[in-house]
Threonine synthase
Amino acid sequence: MKTDLFPEHIRPHLIPKPKGELYYQCLGCGAQHSVEKLLYVCPECNAVLMIHNRHQEELHKLSGTLWQQIFDYRKMLKIPALKGIYRYHEFIGPILPLESILYLGEGHTPQIEASEFLQEKVGIRFFYKNDGQNPSASFKDRGMASALSSIKYLIDQKLVSDVIAVCASTGDTSAAAALYASYLGPLIKSAVLLPHKKVTAQQLSQPLGSGARVFEIPGVFDDCMKVVEQLSTRYPVALLNSKNAWRILGQESYSYEIAQDFDWDMTHKAVVVPIGNAGNISAVMNGFLKFFKAGIIDRLPKIIGVQSEHADPVYQYYLEPDKARRVFTPVDTRPSVAQAAMIGNPVSMPRVVAIAEEYNQASGQNNVFFVQVTEQAIMDWQLTANQNGHIACTQGGECLAGLVKAKAMGLIALNETVVLDATAHAIKFSEFQDLYFKNRIPRPYHIVPDPERVNLPELVSPENPDLIPSQEKRLEKSEFAQFVQEISEKIAQKMDLTPVDP
């Protein structure tokens, strides 16, 4: 749609120009640093960083209603850079010119209301936001679009060159990093570190297919993370894990989309998020806070963070009600079907603590909660969701299990509408479904298949082996008719079908 067809008061705001002044702020010592260099932790104290806009108050000069209109009308533009997460340019990367923005189709993933049967079973109205429908099939693309756009900006400004990007991953991060880096071709090369035999075959194939150097490391994700942290400290590489504050900016778009999908009304809303490395829940909270401060939404939704009992350091931290006595202690993870969340020492823990406290203060009450779920519940609820019309990954199953747990604990009220984060596409974790159906999930997962959820193919074959067709042996017409009739009757019998009158 051409801009001259828009209302006059909207036209000046439709296509954003670079403005503002972004800077890194250390969550440890409070030091500020320029974003015009590759930086992931504070050079002075090694703590994680957040990105702030020194002129954020300028955004508050426009009314919340006008911002709503800007974003609603911007949906109709056909400019690639504004189709994805940068529809919310002013709140994500306002210093970036549109030509530096990398767009591969990420963002604006569908928010699908749960089927009537599933809502009745759970006892509450809820939606799945299917972030598995991003380009690399996970929510990580939001952060990568932001991180790689920031790197392209530095390249365009001739502030860096010959960039080598690295990340540690449980699977999804590596797929997204490799995809977005490969799009920039010779400008950037990527390497990913994966825990050996701890990612699914589908996830391993993605960075390999995108041309990244893939290194498998003995141990778990936390061990890989220590290696890439060492690399980013000692060598000139770009770190693409959520320690990269630009990743958090991109993932804030998840919140913005939820608000827009509900026509900016966040009354009686709750959002359930798996925690993992804690970057996503930090981004979700921070995104809602930004919109709340700008008057775009007039209340903050409830946030429920979920962890498996096999990887629950954040849940354990918040078990202590007295915040003055809380001490964060990393945990040794145990095998989890929610592999992307199987992290015992999340790098964004300081972000969670800082942002959750601000979120609760802005809400005027405790509005951020954490629940723990079993591996059995994760797998059972994932299968229940997918057998009722959804495409939830195991982390999506973790969210649904978390919703059920939160509701039982009284953290979710019956009049609330809930959005669950399906962080990746179900196909990425289909190996666990296959193991569940075949009763082959290893003992350390502590999962016993429910016979009512097991679904396996049935071979239907004719009694006479001479009537079995193949590519090498095609049947004669009469034989094929006999084959069709016999197979049809067997399937009809298995399905309890009654013949119709001729």
